[in-house]
Amino acid sequence: MATLDSLKHALRRKAKALALVPKQPLSDTQYSAGFEILVQGSGWTTYQDFIIPQLSQLLVLLLNSRTQISALEIGPGPKSVLGFLPYNLRRRVSGYTAFEPNNLYAADLKEWLCSTSEAGLPLPCLKNAPAIHQIPFIPQDDKDNDTRTGAGVNDEKYDIILFCHSMYGMEPKRRFIEGALQLFVEPQGGLVVVFYRDGVLRLDGLVCHRTASFPTSVVRVANDDEVLNHFAPFIAGFITQGVDRDEAIRASWRQVCRTLGRREEAHPDHLSFSSPVVMAAFTQNATTLPELTCQVSLVNKTVKNWEARLHRPASIMRPTEDRHVQQCVQWALKHGASLTVIGGGHSGHCLWPNVVAVDMSAFDQVHILREGRDSFDSGPLVVAGAGCTTGDIVHKTMAAGVTVPLGARPSVGAGLWLQGGIGHLARLHGLACDAIIGAVVVSVDSGQVLCVGCVPSQHQPASAVRPENEMDLLCALKGAGTNFGIVTSVTFRAYTAQIYNIRTWIVPLSSNLDARLRLGEFDRFARALSKNCSADAYLYWDAGLLHLGVAMFESSTTGLTFATAVPTPGNSTWGVEVDIKTVDGVGLFETEMYVSRMHGGHGSGKTSSFKRCLFLKCIGEANIAARLVAAVETRPSPLCYLHLLQGGGAVGDVAADATAFGCRDWDFACVITGVWPRDRDGTEAARSAVRWVYGVASDLLPWSEGAYGADLGPDPRDAPLAAKAFGRNGPHLARLKHRLDPHHILAYACPIPKASMEQKLIILVTGESGAGKDYCAEVWVSVFANCAHRSLTARAVSISDTTKREYAAATGADLDRLLWDRAYKEQHRPALTTFYQEQARQRPRLPEEHFLDVVYGAADVDVLLITGMRDEAPVAVLSHLVPDRRLLDVHVQASEQTRRARRRCHGDSKDSKGSNHCGSDPSILDYYCSTLTFDNHATGNEAAESFAKRYLLPFVHNDLERLANMVRAVPDFPRPGIEFRHLLGISQQPGGLALCASLLQTHFTGDWAKVGAVVCCEAGGFVYASALALRVDIPLVLIREAGKLPPPTVSVGKASSHISYNSKEKRIEMEQDVVPRGALVVVVDDVLSSGKTLCAMLQLLDKAGIRADDVSVMVVAEFPVHRGRQLLRQHGFGRVKIHSLLIFGGA
Ligand SMILES: Cc1cc2nc3c(=O)[nH]c(=O)nc-3n(C[C@H](O)[C@H](O)[C@H](O)COP(=O)(O)OP(=O)(O)OC[C@H]3O[C@@H](n4cnc5c(N)ncnc54)[C@H](O)[C@@H]3O)c2cc1C
């Protein structure tokens, strides 16, 4: 599929060839017609999947430091891009200006921004009418010379400036961006964002803050003369003068469109063009590169990878010592920029557009240490600089009689051993990363030089320090090592050098069936090999026929074991070898079949390739073999092939969590290799090979044991592969990434999937009108968003907005004023309440419906804060609807005087008693106690922030997830349909009991000094309550089955639990007077599900004279689906505070 950029060049070439001049710019009408086709043709997907999410992420960052923003859009067309953002972001735009030189669009834009549709105004909270200038945007410096700019037109200041569509007609682009950078409200904060679909964004050294691409965007244009007549001039950027000439060129241009446009089966009447979209965001630091270039030298470098060569970095720095690497990092930290690192330059993401690259090639020393001076280096060690290539290390070590297990190509660099490293010694000695025992790394958090693991003392830089989490970092460097710092050297354990005997077979395949059977044979052959042997297979097409190529590598330290004359099982399967060779480690590089044999040996050396690699087991099994054969059959060019490299042996001997390389259990690494002639880089040939690689990868992914992270980068098509790249280590690595690279300096390395929060949190913020619920909710959102130990998304939503919308639609009230004008809202409050009550009468499940709408509308966030609740006991009533999330409520309270003052300050002079619990009897609150209460008397954020840090952040602490991971799920136990959570199993895990007791202690929101007893019931409660009682040094009071405790006792009946076989009622009892009168009591149990046990315990305490007000309950785990809280409330225990450490969704 041709790109729009190549179409543009082809159209311009055609016009030039026809010598059709003079050209003239498009009129507004011609431009609009073309633009309309483009926007309609690229469909909503580009907005939905790329532009809106990217812009939203940037705005959330911006809104961390301000409550409202003013925006400038440059060339928005007929609709503002900002107007498509989620409501909670749109409503924060308080000022809007646009430069839209197209008169038609300017009028449409004005109308669109001011028209109230069903969904309300696109930008509902503008303080003034939008300012739409019907002139082009002119950078500040050029303004004086330009007569079109009226005085004061762009003297305004903005928080965000958007170049909406490709910077059409703006040259040189750098000057326009620099011009925009001068328009920030706060010189130290603001964003210029460019969305670009016009090929490479050339900005001559301007540094971007963040960039992202959407390579799969496609524009579909109706294959119709009329449509193409409008579309082609728009893409070419001009028309020609004169009717005859115009007709001639249009006919030729239609022809060009039809030749280059792809006809897809699903869209037979359309021509499709690939139209990758790029986003680049700039801050005021975009021009700070000279600060770095005066410290570290620049280099003009061509990297190996064709894809990386297409990216235009801001510059490439070439540090020659650790200090220079530190300077690069410190510069990036100071200016909020990211960096890429160049090792061997073989990946597509060592260079990234408008990002500074750090070329490590000067760190090219290899040191071999036979006998070390340190305690750990008994064996031979190799210290390799991060700029060494595989060839450098193999050459130098071989001369010393040792080796390191590396990969198959000499020019590949540090990216290989930091991310895995699969080679012919992997079955014998493991992956390259397994041989790493130490490293020197420049921290991308502090800029310090860190020494990690075993680094011989003479190779430890004088300034290096040992980090706190040293072993964690070493483990992470072994498999995900491109993500946590810039590595300057690694220390490898070395092995005795090997000699290799290689036997090669080439088997022509007569049919698809033959191919599958032969793969089965190969699988069996490989399985029988000993650890010092490995077998590779190639499935490829040559001379019009499918072939299986097999290479068997046998290694030996002496070469004496090779008996080349003796037949192997390979001979009986595939006949005589086409080649047998004995080589050393260097000679081995030339024996790869794709280098030496296939397609004339690497397509005669003039090819480019694109690879993705998956790990497979049992390649001979029918469904996998069929997929492999089908993949090669659908190759877009005869040069594409599959390469299967054998694993097992020492690769699988390493535990999955011993290194970051978490995929250990596989037989073959399947490298899906798209190849095309080098002179066709950047053409449809290259694009179709890339598409084929991703297509095959996604077909094989569900059958794979994981994906190889080494080739993966920020391309969104890599995300599903990256999700399987680190096995079970993903969540741990994600947390480490957040800790060690908190500023996203290494933003373009292999993506570590974001750890999704297992125990998602919903906080219901309740309280009376004027208490400050919305204000607090916003403050708490920012506390979660800035949480230091994990990256969280948080959002505040008002549940009553739905009612307001329905009310406005039914009564004609002004929705925007209802949402944002407090006085207007207060004026409508009684009518709104009546409206809601009437609706609730007709639809009794309305509160639940509204609640679920809000929750599912924010399914992407980790922490959701909901304001505007009307329910009386929201957690008790609603938690079963979201059984896999933790639901808690915070009651915000303030004195009547404070509330009245706040309401007045917002324009309400009436003494409104109406709360969000409107319609309910306020006395009902007496029967319910919220999880937490916040006294919101003070002005400012401080009190709300410290409340959130003390009481809310503990709910997202990693320790809760550690605890959750200790709970084994047992399906169909004790009877079918029940997924049993083995909570008592926590105590059987190392550190489990201590962790649980410490969490029970810290999650208690009361004062332990006032607690007189910890009360528990057998059996689960005994375990955790004892550990807690010991920790807080408070007497433990036991509740047992009747008859087990000495008199005098009190007792009550207790119904059986929902999972118990025994349905008979039992009695439980406790000794009389063991709890001091008037003391506070903490009841501890392992589980809250149906609530029957807890209910009986509370009844027993009541009978023993302990008031419900004096009781708090703490449970290790709650199963909200059984509605235990509701049962307790129905039995009069609604005022008992209940805290659960864990929430489980199952039965
Ligand atoms: C022709 C070819 C053959 C290959 N053969 C094998 C093979 O036999 N076995 C195998 O396992 N893989 C193989 N690969 C895959 C290879 O391991 C990856 O492509 C690897 O990422 C390349 O590393 P590099 O240093 O050459 O590339 P680069 O593009 O320079 O680096 C790759 C990644 O590592 C990061 N990085 C590099 N140096 C550092 C550093 N010092 N600190 C932090 N980050 C750094 C870069 O930023 C980038 O994200 C091969 C790839 C190619 C193209």
TrEMBL record:
Species of the source: Lojkania enalia
PROSITE patterns cross-referenced by the UniProt entry: FAD_PCMH
UniProt entry tagged with the keyword Flavoprotein: yes
GO CC, any one term: cytoplasm
Region of interest (Disordered), residue spans: 899-918
Residue stretches making up the FAD-binding PCMH-type domain: 309-497
GO biological process terms, semicolon-separated: cholesterol biosynthetic process
Similarity comment text for this entry: Belongs to the oxygen-dependent FAD-linked oxidoreductase family.
Gene Ontology MF, one: oxidoreductase activity
UniProt keyword list: FAD, Flavoprotein, Oxidoreductase
Name of this chain's protein: FAD-binding PCMH-type domain-containing protein
TM region positions: none
